[in-house]
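In this supplementary section we document a worked example of the pipeline. Step one takes a protein sequence of length 405 as its only input; no multiple sequence alignment statistics are reported here. Step two produces a three-dimensional model, which step three serialises into structure tokens for compact storage. The input and output of this example are shown verbatim.
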Amino acid sequence: MKNAKLKTALLVLVASLGYFVDIYDIVIFSIVRIPSFQDIGIHPEDMRINGEYVLNMQMGGLLIGGLVWGVIGDKFGRLKVLFGSILMYSIANISNAFVHDLHTYAIIRFVAGFGLAGELGAGVTLVSESMSRTKRGYGTMLIATVGVLGAVLAFYIAEHFSWRNAYIAGGGIGLLLLLLRVGTFESHLYKASMPSHVKKGSLTMLFNNKERFLRYLYCLMIGLPIWFVVGIFVTQAPEFGHALGATETLSAGKGILYTYIGISLGDLMAGLFAQIIKSRKITVFVFQIGILVSSVLYLTNHGITPSRFNWLAFFMGLGVGYWATFVTIASEQFGTNLRSTVTTTAPNFVRGALIPSTFLFEFFVGKSNIITAGYMMIFLLSGIAIFALSQLKESFDKDLNYIEE
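The serialised model returned by step three reads:
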């Protein structure tokens, strides 16, 4: 028993550190966007649009990678994903340090995104299937709470070293983490024998049954506002600050730092709150309201100062801090033969949804202005998320030992 607990603790630690590196590598571009673009010769007037282009390439990699790694996790095992994904994105991030033009930059961010796509889903699936039904929420809570602090490290490395060295550091840390993964073990639920007729990791199963498809779609929808807040409100802080009449240029890097400190604390609070009230649905609803309140405060803050922006970034981070709870809900909604596919694709589809969200945001900007477009998008995305949440069944304390037929 004691040995089993130690193995589970090691698994949670490794999954947490894996997500730590995952977040570092996901946000590093948002932090070094301006200095890296300056270095490779991007004109100041083109930085916002080209930044969206590179970020969307990364998100596109996450979207496609989520499908591939999710299927691999169900067909061949969760551990295959943990090892393969971190190797790919670590090499890609080291390669990113040697780019000298925009399109190479974007292509390598796509490859990095593809690799990053497998990390969180595989980790959450392993932990959810390895812990007791009443305690697994604590495990996924710790993964996210520790993991999002990778953004803090990314900020400090980018502040003290060149943007190229910041990419090398992210890749190097990922390669070191591979050594820790040697002692991890496969999920006992996955290893348990399944009837030969049961399909594992079949994408068609998500679409050939109306009830299952809607269940999957609702899982995706509840996370829609998260990456819009991070990818637009915070990443484009200099542009929003200009529109709000900021006293000086707002720092996207510091915004990312404070946002992810808020997300880390939010994930901790959301996990504990869900365990106390025994409801993940109510928890997510409360945090959705937090997103709306903090976003309105941001968009109405005329004459915003860097100090006020940092506080608002922190509060917006708290609002979107239901990330781990969202991924846990997705994991708990599906059987063992589809769990990795869903748990891996759901967060990456949400990240990838930033692409159409960005296009729609730019459409609204063209029709009005950046502030009005921000209002329209956050109320639209939050409204969709709250509706989707109302359509899902409560999954707290659900027995995960079942399959999808």
